[in-house]
Design goal:
With about 425 residues, the chain is of the alpha/beta class. The protein is built from 12 helices and 12 strands. The chain has one domain (about 55-420): Glycosidases (TIM Barrel). Helix 8 (about 280-285) links the parallel strand 8 and strand 9 (about 290). Helix 1 packs across helix 2 (about 25-30) and helix 11 packs parallel to helix 12 (about 410-420). The termini are far apart.
């Protein structure tokens, strides 16, 4: 066996740690991930409130063979028991990794048009997550909701990955003056296990002292935690139980937290994707922030205008009347071709106009905070981080391009959204980028 203490043994260390196969002395390195942060922390985005902020979602769920997580090509490949190759692709966009260092890159079987091997990244790599948070700072994105999928918390290997990503995100937020919070996604979790999410939160507070972290996002004077998946109908399968969600919210509130709820688009009139429950509004009103999901709810300018009139405009008024904050979700475009067979680029980006029109619509509606979905999700092609306009073209594989735009275009556009929401630039329907 390779000496895990020698150069080149880091990936092996991580693999054995995640598998629980190391002796306690070495496994103690695993505990470093869960220790309170004691590194440098610079001021930047104000962690005391969501007001005026443009945040993004950070999935952090990508793995590669050899990254140490022992999770194969998670979220790159559809079938993890097969090689990541043409015909077994789960993503519709390809990241621009031209700025990554060699120790962040993992070679694939795909090639570019000139025959060069295509490489990609792993979210398990601390250096890469730090790079992503630096990009947030470089382009003026306030911070991120680090996704923590509840249905994988019971699995030792998956939990190791989640903890590592969270630790890296925490460090990145501190080093680059960003904020971060945790978003618990309840998709796919059995009702009986929903309440166990709070056990995970309690562990993070006790071990990582996460709410005392200088970069941890607060709101209304309290540490902010987000819970996603509340109040949906059968669109989410299995749909999180309504009573179980209520009990979880109560747990977090009793623990002194502000709570943001990721909810259905039709929550207010209880139509479309929302459950019809007479107690829905009373439960939602116990939260501090409501954030209705809008990804895939419209796919062109006409649909956007209809959505704005029926939902966003009226939602903002309702929230204001009930003294609750409102954080709408916008997205740059959507595609689910490689994973599900839907049309490639089914919701066109239109060179950024689709996303910018959503920014303007919500500003005009009176929203004072914004959530961009997502920073890194190339699976559904909602990513705003640096992606390539010249993706691999081998073996008949198909990926979206950026329509001739530079790889950082959507990061710059997100930065402009922040300026608009801080009233630093005027409202304009035209994209404020050259």
């Amino acid at each position: 066996m390779k000496n895990v203490y020698q150069p080149g043994g880091k990936a092996l260390i991580q693999t054995l740690l995640c598998a629980g196969l190391l002796q306690p002395a070495v496994a103690s390195e695993r505990e470093e991930v869960l220790k309170p942060y004691n590194g440098p922390s610079v001021s930047g985005s104000d962690p005391r409130t969501l007001k005026g902020k443009v945040m993004t979602g950070y999935q952090g769920w990508f793995n590669c063979e050899g990254d140490g997580a022992n999770l194969a090509w998670t979220h790159w490949a559809k079938n993890l028991k097969k090689p990541f190759e043409p015909g077994n692709i789960a993503v519709d966009m390809w990241p621009d990794v031209s700025e990554y260092d060699d120790d962040e890159l993992y070679t694939t079987v795909f090639t570019y048009a000139d025959g060069t091997p295509a490489k990609t990244f792993s979210s398990f790599n601390r250096k890469t997550v730090l790079r992503h948070f630096k990009w947030m700072a470089d382009y003026g994105i306030d911070g991120a909701f680090v996704q923590r999928f509840a249905n994988g918390l019971h699995d030792k290997t998956m939990r190791c990955h989640k903890d590592t990503v969270l630790s890296s995100a925490r460090e990145g937020a501190n080093r680059y003056g960003r904020t971060y919070s945790i978003m618990y996604d309840l998709t796919g979790i059995p009702d009986k296990d929903i309440i166990k999410v709070f056990d995970d939160w309690r562990m993070l507070r006790e071990k990582m002292h996460i709410t005392g972290d200088p970069a941890f996002q607060h709101h209304n004077g309290k540490p902010l935690v987000a819970i996603w998946g509340v109040g949906f109908n059968n669109e989410i399968k299995p749909r999180p139980g309504f009573q179980e969600c209520r009990e979880l919210i109560q747990k977090f509130k009793a623990d002194g937290c502000s709570v943001m709820l990721g909810i259905a688009t039709g929550w207010r009139p209880q139509d479309f994707d929302a459950t019809k429950n007479p107690e829905l509004h009373s439960v939602l009103l116990t939260a501090d922030v409501l954030s209705p999901w809008s990804v895939g709810r419209f796919d062109n300018q006409t649909g956007l205008k209809r959505h704005t009139k029926k939902y966003w405009n009226q939602d903002v008024v309702w929230a204001r009347e009930h003294n609750i904050d409102y954080m709408p979700v916008i997205f740059p475009g959507f595609s689910w071709y490689n994973l599900t067979g839907r049309k490639l680029g089914s919701t066109p980006r239109n060179k950024g106009q689709f996303m910018w029109s959503q920014v303007v619509a919500n500003k005009k509606a009176g929203a004072d905070m914004l959530y961009i979905a997502m920073f890194d999700e190339v699976d559904e092609a909602t990513a705003i981080f640096k992606c390539t306009d010249n993706p691999p073209a081998s073996g008949g594989a198909q990926f979206l391009t950026l329509e001739g735009l530079p790889s950082d275009f959507y990061l710059r556009l997100a930065g402009q959204a922040g300026k608009l929401f801080r009233n630093e630039i005027p409202v304009t329907e035209k994209i404020p980028l050259k």
